[in-house]
Design brief:
This is Alpha-mannosidase. By secondary structure, the protein is an alpha+beta fold. The chain has 18 helices and 43 strands.
């Protein structure tokens, strides 16, 4: 009888397990994908690694030991850090600049210890240093990996499938007794040349390529012919002075560690990647840093919602379990599968041909549909968890009364806000969810259908609001458009102070006193019609435009509507800070999804993309909480700069928003659009300006311009931000998504916004990039002073072996540069904005009772200790069901006390919750968790916890009991010591650590 498909699948699975357990097959890295290393954000990188590791452990009972990252387009130092934190023994990389390849070969440094940049020396087992092997040749295919001569290596690709005619199938000959000696001689010559590039006597030779071993016949051909060669060479060991065996990466690392222990140490990264083998001239892979920004933003939107859900789900699910709320418990169990799918969809998109934007348009669309589906699912599941957490009567649960504020018709459209209904007889509650473990200030905006509205906080007190217009844009012709305030919708803005990890209920109520004093004043030309009654509309006066709050004054150019300068009032000095939009013209066939190259025939490489949109409209909005200037250039660009007047720390930052629409092709063809800041900051010599770009939202790396390699070679990836500085001032730009950035002239910082290249760049995609969409880019901009003196000691004394000086600097190198704590807080706010949910009471008699202020944490986390995730683990024997354990992933975000002055530190760390003197190695440090002593405060309200102290110290969350806390490796596969109390947790500055929390039954 013929075996069934199920029987065959089970037998294949058994064979696979046997091969893995015996070591004949090795699972390398074990992440959900081979992640991109330039565009992926830290949260998603860690999450896809956890998802993959938990899967291979559950299904194959193995723990990966070595990394394999041979296809990302350039390598950063975040992945080796993550692998070291996961207990790995070594990792393998491939795509680095060809000049780096030559340098490694010349010095025989192909195996090296990759250490974090902020480490002064490797002095402990937890220093996260990773033994790394750089494959010495251009690419990983057999043609390019057996040795330095590709056309000789072609002789040793033995794939011959009927109907396939390729260079290897024509060139290669099967091994026979007649040719085996000649072939062995030829192969050993290449292997010897490869081995000569390393200081030990072990060579690693991969045998494979993309889309290989998909035919059983090829596996037989490759194995049989190589086996003949290996046996022959081993039998003639005297002649060849070598021994060859089949092996896996872990065999290689074990072998070199036995023979060698003097590996050089490397700090830094390998961006920008450049190849030279395609055309014989350098090609820089810096285009994909920005390609398809709409998709990059969509990925971060899912990341934000997934993280928000993970934390809520863990708390709500275990509360339901512990309180016996079986109905809620079943709802969470039933929907857990959707959370698993969201993890995997987010993880899938971190692939090095997904978030990079380097897949065909139809493939990118499929990715986007998956992201969109999971965004919808994670928002719906947040609603279900919040419904449990905010109700006063947990045993009489109501469901389906929350809806997320954002609506989205499909993945290709920007989300829009659902109006909150307010009438004389009806008010509406809405819940704001802060998913950060620190108190935060959040600018909240809601939409209403009337300007007669007031907002009440959780205690029922009216708070300050500002009512802004919702602009209606009517196309009167291609070159002309009418922009007027809507008389049907209004934007209500207020600044919320949100408790750490909390759900706060606000009320939008009808204001019988009217709306005087709350309405923004509008300054514009021809933006008023007979319907504009609520707002006072004034004509824009001639001359430059000025916005002002009590901390700074902004000056805008009258003609362009763009920022010109900033005056910091405490300095009493005007600082040049001009914004410019322009574009590079792409070199056809050389600039594409992967590559960025400017047109060499265009004498001035920059082009004015705005001149074609002569219909400029400038709108000015001024109100009690915020003022902004918006410059609209046709359908192409709507650029808004806003400052706040909220009497808070937010008033020190500048908010920027760009709506960009390249329109349908072929408009704006071969266009690489950027936004540039031109300042008087002296960030290096005229030929070699410097800037600092972040890597994966985790660390910052210094970049120095090299004039000889052009614009494209000086563009670097940023994921969260970049800054330029001199000895007195720093300009920091923080962003919501990955893009390319550069500093090409002193005082300048620019970011690439979007790209349209009609032609393929011959790196594998086979088409141009023409599927751009209307995209909203959001930024924070800060101008901060730099204190030249070492930071003063804070109230908490430093830990032993730390000091109050800047970065230990035994080598004489520059100190490691860190953002300010203010910049960290703004970046966290951009990455993880507060989520808003509307309470819908369909029946006026509904007796729904809500806790208006729900705090989920017992104590606020220190200002520099970020809860990266609180991720429920899956039951080991039930792959679609949640367990009672969760991984708590913590990140101690480094910062410098020298940047921004004491005011920022006083705000962010001055509420009795800080325990850190400056979380970076560039400042004094102390235990960030020493102040998180749990005082026994109970659940909601003032309930008293009568449990013994040793029990209370395990309880991090309100109304949720934890049995055990266990340290573990980053992805949860290597258990460590049991933790007696949360006060025993300690992280070094910049460090990531994971703890396994097991909740009580």
């Amino acid at each position: 009888a013929k075996p069934s498909a199920t029987t065959t699948l089970l037998s294949v699975l058994q064979i696979l397990k046997k091969l893995v357990q015996s070591g004949r097959l090795e699972i390398t890295t074990g992440g959900w994908v081979m992640t991109d290393e330039a565009n992926a954000h830290l949260y998603a990188m860690v999450d896809q690694l956890i998802e993959g590791h938990q899967w291979v452990k559950a299904n194959l009972n193995i723990t990966p030991k070595t990394g394999w990252s041979i296809d990302p387009f350039g390598h950063g130092s975040t992945v080796p850090y993550l692998l070291a934190a996961s207990g790995f023994k070594g990792t393998i990389i491939q795509r680095i600049h060809y000049a780096w390849k030559q340098w490694f070969a010349r010095h025989r440094y192909g195996d090296f210890l990759w250490t974090p940049y902020w480490k002064s020396q490797s002095n402990s087992a937890s220093d996260h240093t990773m033994l790394t092997h750089n494959m010495p040749f251009d690419i990983y295919s057999i043609k390019h990996s057996c040795g330095p001569h590709p056309f000789i290596c072609l002789n040793f690709d033995f794939r011959k499938i009927p109907g396939e005619y390729t260079e290897y199938s024509i060139k290669a000959q099967f091994i026979t007794p007649e040719n085996i000696e000649a072939k062995a001689d030829l192969l050993m010559e290449q292997y010897s040349r490869t081995a000569s590039l390393f200081p030990h006597n072990v060579a690693l030779i991969p045998v494979g390529d993309d889309f290989r071993y998909n035919k059983e016949k090829e596996m037989e051909q490759q194995y049989t012919n190589y086996k003949k060669l290996i046996d022959y060479i081993n039998e003639h060991r005297q002649k060849y002075n070598a021994e060859i065996s089949f092996g896996t990466p872990v065999d290689y690392f074990n072998a070199i560690r036995e023979r060698y222990d003097r590996f050089p140490t490397l700090k830094g990264d390998f961006f920008v990647y450049a190849d030279i083998f395609n055309e014989g001239r350098p090609a820089y892979w810096s285009g994909y840093f920005t390609t398809r920004p709409y998709y990059k933003i969509l990925s971060r939107e899912l990341e934000h919602n997934l993280r928000s859900l993970e934390i809520l789900f863990t708390i709500a699910f275990n509360r339901a379990r512990q309180t016996g709320s079986s109905n809620a418990f079943k709802i969470y169990e039933k929907n857990y599968e959707k959370m698993i799918l969201a993890r995997r969809n987010l993880g899938l998109f971190q692939h090095h041909d997904a978030i990079t934007g380097t897949s065909k348009a139809n493939v990118m669309r499929d990715y986007a549909l998956r992201l969109f589906e999971s965004i919808q699912d994670t928002v719906k599941l947040q609603e279900k968890t919040i419904e449990l957490l905010v109700q006063r009567k947990p045993l009489d649960q109501q469901h389906g009364f929350l809806i997320g504020e954002l609506e989205r018709d499909n993945f290709g459209k920007l989300p829009r806000k659902t109006p909150i209904i307010v009438t004389e007889g009806r008010s509406t509650d809405f819940i704001v969810y802060n998913a950060l473990a620190q108190e935060r200030l959040e600018v909240v905006t809601i939409r209403t259908l009337t300007p007669r509205v007031k907002v009440l906080d959780a205690s029922g007190k009216a708070i300050d609001i500002q009512i802004n217009p919702v602009w209606n844009i009517t196309e009167t012709s291609y070159t002309s458009r009418k922009i007027v305030p809507s008389d049907k919708e209004y934007e209500v803005m207020f600044v919320a102070r949100l408790a750490p990890l909390s759900l706060t209920t606000y009320t939008a109520a009808y204001d019988e006193d009217g709306y005087q004093g709350k309405m923004a004043t509008l300054y514009c030309t021809e933006c008023q019609d007979e319907k504009t009654k609520a707002f006072e509309v004034r004509s824009k006066q001639p001359g430059d435009i000025q916005l002002e709050n009590y901390k700074m004054r902004l000056l805008f150019d009258e003609q362009s509507g763009f920022l010109k300068s900033v005056t910091k009032k405490h300095m009493g000095k005007q600082i040049q800070c001009a914004i410019k939009f322009a574009a590079y013209k792409s070199a056809q066939f050389h600039s594409g999804a992967y590559l960025f190259k400017t047109d060499p025939e265009q004498r001035n490489s920059e082009k004015d993309v705005l001149e074609q949109y002569g219909d400029l409209t400038i709108l000015i909005t001024s109100g009690p909480l915020a003022s902004d200037v918006t410059a609209i250039y046709g359908p192409f660009l709507a650029h808004t700069v806003r400052i706040y007047n909220s009497n808070s720390v937010l008033d020190s930052a500048i908010y920027i928003e760009n709506d960009i629409d390249f329109e349908a092709p072929p408009k704006n063809r071969e266009t690489e659009l950027f936004m540039r800041f031109v300042t008087d900051i002296e960030n290096g010599a005229s030929e070699n300006p410097e800037f600092y770009s972040d890597l994966n939202g985790f660390q910052y790396q210094k970049r120095v311009k090299v004039s000889a390699i052009g614009v494209e070679g000086n563009y670097f990836p940023i994921t969260s931000g970049a800054f330029i500085q001199d000895d007195r001032m720093r300009l920091t730009l923080l962003t919501t998504h990955a893009q390319g950035a550069a500093s090409l002239e002193p005082g300048q910082l620019e970011v690439m916004l979007d790209r349209r290249t009609l032609y393929d760049d011959y790196r594998g995609m086979g088409e141009g990039v023409i599927d751009s969409r209307l995209t909203r880019h959001r930024f924070w901009l800060t101008l901060e002073t730099i204190d030249a003196a070492p930071a003063a000691a804070q109230p908490n004394p430093p830990e032993p072996n730390n000091n109050n000086e800047e970065q230990p600097n035994p080598s004489g190198a520059d100190p490691y540069q860190l953002p300010s704590i203010f910049a960290n807080a703004l970046a966290n706010g951009l990455n993880y904005p507060a989520n808003l949910f509307i309470v819908e009471r369909y029946d006026e008699s509904n007796q729904l009772e809500l806790n208006r202020a729900v705090r989920l944490l017992r104590v606020q986390f220190p200002c520099d200790l970020h809860m990266l995730n609180l991720r429920t683990l899956t039951e080991s024997n039930l792959p679609l069901f949640p367990s009672s354990s969760a991984l708590l992933v913590l990140q101690r975000q480094g910062y410098s006390c020298r940047i921004g002055g004491d005011e920022m530190i006083g705000y962010f760390c001055g509420n009795g919750s800080s325990s850190s003197n400056g979380g970076g190695t560039g400042s004094s440090t102390s235990n960030p968790s020493k102040n998180t002593v749990l005082d026994g405060g109970g659940g909601e309200g003032n309930e008293i916890d009568h449990r013994p102290p040793e029990v209370r110290e395990l309880q991090l969350f309100r109304r949720l009991r934890i049995d055990t806390i266990q340290a573990t490796s980053l992805t949860g596969l290597h258990p460590g010591e049991r933790i007696a109390s949360f006060t025993d947790i300690y992280l070094e500055p910049m460090e990531l650590k994971t703890y396994n929390l097991t909740f009580s039954k």
